[in-house]
Amino acid sequence: MQFLDKTQQAKNLLNDPFFLGEIELLKNAELSAIVNSQPQQVEEREFAYNRLNALQSVITHFESIAATSEIVKKRWKIL
């Protein structure tokens, strides 16, 4: 079943210390760019903010995939 394989792969990724550590490093770099920007560097802050949101979207995507099997299990219990 490819469906369960994707779910398990997403769970594995979200539990992988290396992956999570690298995501945190990337997030911290963007936060640092925002915090250390000069008042007139609006475009730089917006760019860093957008990259931060993109990273969060990637994590949310994998969380959604990882939760899919639980949602399917609960759906069958309701019926």
Describe the secondary structure blueprint for this structure.
Elements: H1 2-14, H2 17-35, H3 42-78
Describe this structure in words.
By secondary structure, this protein is mainly alpha-helical. It has one domain (2-78). 87% of the residues lie in helices and 0% in strands. The chain has helices at 2-14, 17-35, 42-78. The two termini are 22 Å apart. The model has no long low-confidence stretch (mean pLDDT 90).
Keywords:
0% strand; single chain; 87% helix; mainly alpha
Order of helices and strands: HHH
Rg on CA atoms, Å = 17 Å
Q: Tally the helices: what do you get?
A: 3
Largest sheet: none
Name the poorly predicted regions: none
Query: Distance between termini?
Result: 22 Å
Helix content: over 70%
Q: Which band does the percent of strand residues land in?
A: under 5%
Q: Kindly give the count of domains.
A: 1
Average predicted local confidence, pLDDT: 90
Structural class computed from helices and strand pairing: mainly alpha
Number of strands: 0
Shape descriptor reads elongated
